[in-house]
Automatic annotation (TrEMBL):
<dbReference type="InterPro" id="IPR052339">
    <property type="entry name" value="Fe-S_Maturation_MIP18"/>
</dbReference>
<feature type="region of interest" description="Disordered">
    <location>
        <begin position="1"/>
        <end position="28"/>
    </location>
</feature>
<dbReference type="InterPro" id="IPR034904">
    <property type="entry name" value="FSCA_dom_sf"/>
</dbReference>
<feature type="domain" description="MIP18 family-like">
    <location>
        <begin position="31"/>
        <end position="102"/>
    </location>
</feature>
<dbReference type="Pfam" id="PF01883">
    <property type="entry name" value="FeS_assembly_P"/>
</dbReference>
<dbReference type="InterPro" id="IPR002744">
    <property type="entry name" value="MIP18-like"/>
</dbReference>
<dbReference type="InterPro" id="IPR014291">
    <property type="entry name" value="SUF_FeS_clus_asmbl-assoc"/>
</dbReference>
<protein>
    <submittedName>
        <fullName>SUF system Fe-S cluster assembly protein</fullName>
    </submittedName>
</protein>
<feature type="compositionally biased region" description="Low complexity">
    <location>
        <begin position="14"/>
        <end position="25"/>
    </location>
</feature>
Length: 126
């Protein structure tokens, strides 16, 4: 995804100690989007899809659009139709989101190394 349209918290090239300009009012931040995505669980695995490492990119636009790239645990995943729609609905429900889109990508392929430590702990993989 391109960087065009991303909300910048400071002007490009400005030192970090420069006061950050106000983001557009009402546009959700990445943490809010991640929290919404984390409400979606793979029905076969008791871990949310963010902790599973299925989210590859979150692109926030200053007009309220949110574009998400995600993958699935396998190409023949039985939840292939419902998970992306659940993610889209969860993000679209956030205040300030004008449009949410979810694209499925297969490159790079998902593997267990993408899971967070919390997900590994929940699945007794340590």
């Amino acid at each position: 995804m391109s960087e065009e349209g991303h909300i910048l918290t400071r002007p490009l090239g400005a030192p970090a100690e420069t006061p950050a300009p106000e983001a557009h009012a009402g546009v959700p931040d990445e943490d809010s989007v991640i929290s919404a995505i984390a409400t979606v669980y793979d029905p076969e695995i008791p871990v949310n899809i963010y902790e599973l490492g299925l989210i590859y990119a979150i692109d926030l636009h200053d007009d309220g659009r949110v574009d998400i790239e995600m993958t699935l645990t396998a190409p023949n995943c039985p939840s292939a139709q419902e998970l992306p729609e659940q993610v889209r609905e969860a993000v679209a429900a956030l205040p300030g989101v004008s449009n949410a889109s979810v694209s499925i990508v297969w490159d790079p392929p998902w593997d267990m190394s993408r899971m967070s430590d919390d997900a590994r702990l929940a699945l007794n993989m340590f």
